[in-house]
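Posting this for the archive.
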Amino acid sequence: MILNFDPVKTWLRYGISDLYFGYANQSNDVYHYGTFFFIMAAEKHLKAVLIESRKDEYESVGSLEGKRNAVDKIARSYSHRFDLMIEQVAKVYEQHTGKTFLEPEVFGYPLATVVKTMQEGYMETRYPVVAPASRRYPLGKGDDLYHEPLGSSFFTDFTKTICRRCWYFLVAKGLDHAGVFSYIEERYGESRMFGAFKTTYLDGLTTKL
């Protein structure tokens, strides 16, 4: 059983599943559901990288239960702190690839603003909120005109950028990408929108460096 213990691949499988759910639910009438899944996909990809980068903390544990508890502790330590996760992933990404993880602006908005929107959107996509994320995206000088980031393609494209770059990093670290693809296709291959998702996202993922 220990030989089958692969928490990085497990978190990544869940992350790609969420990407598919986001893709399948991004129509205008239910866009908040789709956006929630895109946010969750980004979180799971980020945590997959963080779990990989901290593998010494669980690989040295003797029992399978102990390994699982150590991984769970790592994942929980970040909660839904996208600012913290992105900051730490950026460090290991740049260290191992020599590339910048994320650009300082996203569609003209400061990276810090969009990251904060991800953190707030985790709740706003499911519950009524007092201070919506749109307050950070004014349109012109009007007091009541705002851009709706959680319903915008720029925001979901940003989450997919995070996922692609996490994938790139993990492939560079030896990810069993064929195993991940096999799982996703076996689980969702017969779903109505999977073919389009595969063409527009999965087929574009790096498998060789």
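Strands lie at 105-106, 109-110. The first helix runs from residue 7 to 24.
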